[in-house]
Write a structure and sequence with these properties.
Length: about 230
């Protein structure tokens, strides 16, 4: 990890994503300065609509504009349900902008052809599945994807019952592990459940660690390109 200190904006749609990404930066890039931007109403609306609307994208863009005005070096969106929106708005900003999960999903496609996906927000399951299919198509690789959504786990976390959240996810991960080469946890908030099942299932990928490394790499590449210009 680069020793250079950068300022990185984190855009959140749920409080449940905050602690996992802060812990990941603390472990993998503690030299970075983090600036948090939050609109938790986005996840509540998404749970009602089951789809990302133009209004939601505008609100995400407004958060990104606030981050850019703060003169950050990069922007990381921590809610995987809104990953497709990043492709629509990233060209509007002069700093690198990444979604939470693309690096993780690319790794999943590299690791296996039978991929299990677990999500706790209903919109995140289909979104992750489509992204995996797109990555596999680009690489001309045939994959089988089994996606399970556990909304009651997200509700348990909202109700401050993390033990129930972790138990529900653990049970499904063990089931998927029987038929899959690799398992993907679709959201940052699910990373906490990994601790109790490491070594008991097929490899489990979570996005906090991979996204930290990816955004720092993107910033470093841009800084190096600017340096070469001058």
């Amino acid at each position: 990890m680069a020793a250079q200190q950068y300022q990185i904006a984190l855009i959140h749609a749920t409080m449940n994503s905050v602690q996992p990404i802060l812990e990941a930066f603390g472990e993998h890039a503690p030299e970075m300065t983090l600036v948090n931007f939050m609109d938790e109403s986005l996840i509540f609306e998404l749970n009602e609509t089951k789809r990302v609307t133009k209004g939601m994208i505008r609100r995400l863009m407004n958060l990104a504009e606030k981050a850019a005005a703060h003169e950050v070096d990069g922007i990381l969106l921590t809610c995987s349900s809104f990953t497709p929106a990043v492709a629509e708005i990233r060209h509007l900003f002069n700093v690198p902008m990444l979604s939470a999960d693309l690096s993780m999903l690319e790794k999943a496609v590299d690791l296996g052809s039978r991929i299990g996906v677990i999500a706790t927000v209903e919109a995140a399951g289909p979104t992750t599945t489509r992204l995996l299919e797109g990555i596999a198509a680009e690489r001309q690789k045939s994959v089988q994807i089994e996606t399970i959504v556990i909304p009651e786990a997200f509700q348990a976390l909202q109700n401050r019952n993390p033990a129930q959240h972790d138990e529900l996810i653990t049970r499904k991960a063990e089931e998927l592990s029987l038929d899959c080469d690799v398992i993907v946890f679709a959201q940052f908030s699910m990373a906490r459940a990994v601790k109790g099942i490491q070594g008991k299932t097929k490899p489990i990928l979570t996005s906090p660690e991979t996204s930290v490394k990816a955004i720092v790499q993107e910033i470093t590449k841009k800084e190096a390109a600017l340096h070469d210009l001058y």
